[in-house]
From TrEMBL:
Protein's organism: Saccharomyces uvarum (Yeast)
Coiled coil: none
Classification via Pfam families: Mss4
UniProt xrefs under InterPro entries: Mss4, Mss4-like_sf, Mss4/transl-control_tumour
Alphabetized UniProt keyword annotations: Guanine-nucleotide releasing factor, Protein transport, Transport
Name the record gives this protein: Dss4p
Underlying gene: SUVZ16G2950
PANTHER family (alphabetical): GUANINE NUCLEOTIDE EXCHANGE FACTOR MSS4
Length: 142
């Protein structure tokens, strides 16, 4: 199983073991909308670059920090922008982002989001961690 680690030299903290079954693809616009850290030059990054790891439980992380609330200037109104993805048996969309995920050791990031997401079939909502794999170094097998 590969692992995601902090990509900064001098840190490289383990963030999480990657469960491939929980990788989803989000629209590219998510990066600019939420000003997520990007690491385009990193050779280990997968070719499909808008991959996020869905993490239902914060305890699944080896280490992760949570920032204060996202400034409203960054949230704005999602308006017509739909950030939708398939996960499990459902199709979800991001309703609202609540907090940022950051590296627990060096505080760099954001490397992901804590979002309120909505099941498009029945409007049920839940809170989920979405970890940006492009914001991290991926090490290990594969
Ligand atoms: Zn770090």
């Amino acid at each position: 199983m590969s692992r995601a680690t902090c990509l900064f030299d001098g840190c490289r903290s383990a963030v999480i073991a990657i469960d491939e079954n929980n990788i989803v693809s989000l629209p590219e616009g998510v990066y600019s909308q939420f000003k997520l850290l990007e690491n385009r030059a990193e050779p280990g990054v997968r070719s499909s670059n808008s991959n996020f790891l869905v993490v239902p439980d914060v305890w699944d992380f080896d280490n992760v920090g949570v920032s204060r609330d996202i400034p409203s200037s960054l949230l704005g109104d999602l308006g017509d922008k739909e950030f939708a993805f398939d996960y499990g048996d459902s199709s979800w969309k991001i309703k609202k982002c609540l907090k940022y995920l950051i590296c627990a050791d060096c505080d760099k990031g954001p490397i992901g989001l804590i979002c309120q997401i909505q099941d498009q079939a029945n409007d049920k909502e839940k809170v989920m961690h979405l970890l940006s794999l492009r914001s991290l170094q991926i090490v290990g097998e594969n």
